[in-house]
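Q: Hi! Curious about what chitin deacetylase looks like structurally. Here's the sequence.
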Amino acid sequence: MRTSISIAAAFLLLSGAHAQTPTDEASEAALTDMTEECTNYNYAPVVNAASSFPTLWTPVSSVPTTDPGYAKFIAMNASIPNIAPKGTLGVPDNTINTYPSSDPDCWWTESQCTTPKTAGVNPDIASVPEPRTLGYGFDDGPNCSHNAFYDYLESKNQKATLYYIGSSVMIWPLQAQRAVADGHEICVRECLFSDIYLGLYGTLASDDTWSHRSMTAFNNEQAFGELWYTMQAIKLVTGVTPTCWRPPLGDVDDRIRYIAQQLGLETIIWKYDTFDWQANDAAITPPVTPQDVQNNYNTFINDATSGDFNTIGAIVLTHELNNFTMQTAIDNYEKLVAAFDHIMPVGVALNKTTPYVETNYTQSNFEEYVAARAGGSNSTSGSSGSSATGSNSGSPSGTGSKAQTTGTGSSAGVTIRASGLTLVLALVGALFIAQ
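A: Let's find out. The predicted structure is below.
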């Protein structure tokens, strides 16, 4: 039997498991020991707002009529494209087996379609316009033990687009705040409560299957809720509201694109996948090895070196998901630098100088970013962080790797410590699995 637990209860139970170490973003960012980084803590704004969010670890089944988002949903509902959900509560059905080859819904999962068939729906962003430019980013953060990785990016004066899961933001708010403090661009990674729950349960219960919560398998209200509550979580913790998102597994069609668009979110997809999220996952058949992932990196880098991106830039799928994915990103960073003329956040490559709803925060455009990197600095400005204050108060998702893996060293001279996901799983296992 599976049980659910409220956000407030989760924090109260978890906070007693270890000494409370970080008190703010700066003190958390200064931690260098994985156990300390992944020590659970209470963050007052999250605990105080718990009743405004769905129960942790469960998909959003509906939006309460008392929630401010409900009126937004009702206002858009009648105009949402009339496309049937391809499953129930985020679990896909067999639609893909009978789906028309004409692809009337522009369903990425079926055809990698990025140009909508429905009038008024904006196309996906699958590449960046600047030649020989990499739109650099990582999915499925914040990982509680990402300091070594973020320190490495900072040492290289490198900014990235970070696609954050709402649940992870709520659990590791100070880690999420570091992204804004370091000048990275934050986007929504959806799946506030659904994929992370499946990931935890699958790992803890040794489940041999992996069932993603696919956006096209939600009804209109549920899909709205998954995005809405993730946006609210990021706003609560970091003080900024994203204007971009990435669907788990790329599962998006014109109905979901439209819902996201009405929430002010641009859909960012990819054309290249390192498959780093599949490495060492026993549920993947045939198995994906670390060498397979490296081969995928090598192919992508060779394509860049061979001139495939001489007229238009690229976006590649990589992850902050666990120790292996972060370490592999470090190991390949200098190779990417050698292969591309420019590496930058997706929004910067799109000349999107106001990345959030809040207009007091700006980031560089393409030319400014290139000039700043040449001069040894990058420019972001604005205020961020939760308006409330808290004290002492990695999760798997989206693409769904179950197991935390261990890095094998770094050619870049940096070694990521063992990630805190295993520690977190051990702590929450007793909370979310009832015998």
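A: A fun detail: The radius of gyration is 20 Å.
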